[in-house]
Amino acid sequence: MVGYIEKRLPEILKCGARELQYIILASAQIKADVVALDEKETGPRAILNYGHTVGHAFEAATHYRKFRHGEGVAWGMIAALRYGREVGLLKETETERMIRLIRRVGKLPPVKGIPFEDIWNAMMLDKKFQRGDIRMILLNEPGKAAIYNDIEKDSLRGFLKKFLSDTEMG
Q1: Alpha-carbon distance values, 7 to 2, 3, 143, 161, 169 (Å)
Q2: pTM given for the model
């Protein structure tokens, strides 16, 4: 799917009927397959929340005024990609490939200037913080998401602070 989107993104963004039909049908089938495995979201269905842990925090920290949901999730996906790279799950080339694809879809509102503590506090209230454990969906390779329930808080805090202060993130 990633390769298809990379090759046909201009047509997709112009709402090319064939490309949109393919993506919508393929995405719906993937989601249906995942939901069928886990109707009550107790296991693998959580991969559908890729990008949402940080994305929802960006949305909440800005009182849902700065980001549309898709923009927040796109930033969350970029953060998850960079964090996955930092903890050794992804190669740099894979990380940058996926980030380039996200950025090709459209310009995102900047994340610079959002107070870190507002984002962190919003994350602490998210349902993905179960019993004090941070659950994130990270990629092991493009198109292969996995659930990580053992994210170290100090590691994630340090990463997010750096992510927010990085001049390229704005």
Answers
A1: 9, 6, 15, 34, 25
A2: 0.85
